[in-house]
């Protein structure tokens, strides 16, 4: 089966957003170019790590002699996107992601693959699906300024969840919280 590639070389918009209330949110990576929109679900931790790794790559590029790719050290204000997600039709739930740098276009490259379907074989052991290739992949290329703005927004979205209890360190629900102290 051929792989469906959702490729965005110069997207009009690329953001992480959520649907739902804190504690029950679903995170989405949404990309739009013209009328084409792709939304993939991912975990909160995947979102946080993606932002962290993008900033790490950009920070390393800034240190190159002469900053040949004109990587901004802070988020360009004109690229900040605080709008809500557009209509969400989940394409797939993300399993593995990869992150890279393309020096020929000065872009961060993000690839996301769906969670692999795993089923039991005749002996009851888990076995990968016969088709080793991913059925879909999302490939997004972001210019350095857009990537910096994407990472900033993503950190803000991740941080907008439930507040953390200063006593026990667990998230506090809106309907109440009972601290769970560790046994001594």
Describe this structure in words.
With 184 residues, the protein is α+β, with helices and mostly antiparallel strands. It has a single domain (4-159), classed as Secreted effector protein pipB2 fold. Helix content is 19%, strand content 34%. It contains 2 helices and 9 strands. The protein has helices at 44-62, 144-159, and strands at residues 4-8, 13-19, 26-33, 36-42, 90-102, 107-114, 118-120, 126-128, 136-143. The strands form 2 sheets. A 7-stranded mixed sheet has the order 1-9-6-5-4-3-2. Strands 7-8 form a two-stranded antiparallel sheet. Strand 3 and strand 4 (36-42) form a beta hairpin. The longest helix has 19 residues, at 44-62. The radius of gyration is 19 Å and the shape is globular. The mean pLDDT is 88.
């Amino acid at each position: 089966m051929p792989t469906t590639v959702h490729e965005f070389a110069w997207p009009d918009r690329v953001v992480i957003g959520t649907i739902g209330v804190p504690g029950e949110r679903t995170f989405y990576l949404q990309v739009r170019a013209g009328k084409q929109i792709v939304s993939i679900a991912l975990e909160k931790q995947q979102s946080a790590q993606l932002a962290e790794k993008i900033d790490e790559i950009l920070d390393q590029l800034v240190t190159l002699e002469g900053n040949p790719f004109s990587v901004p050290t802070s988020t360009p204000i004109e690229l900040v996107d605080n709008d809500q997600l557009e209509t969400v039709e989940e394409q797939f739930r993300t399993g593995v992601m990869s992150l890279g740098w393309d020096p020929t276009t000065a872009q961060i490259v993000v690839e996301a693959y769906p969670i692999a379907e795993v089923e039991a074989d005749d002996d009851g052991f888990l076995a990968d699906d016969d088709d080793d290739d991913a059925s879909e992949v999302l490939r997004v290329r972001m210019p350095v300024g857009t990537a910096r703005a994407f990472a900033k927004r993503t950190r803000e979205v991740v941080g907008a969840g439930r507040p953390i209890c200063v006593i026990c360190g667990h998230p506090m629900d809106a309907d109440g919280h009972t601290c769970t102290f560790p046994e001594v």
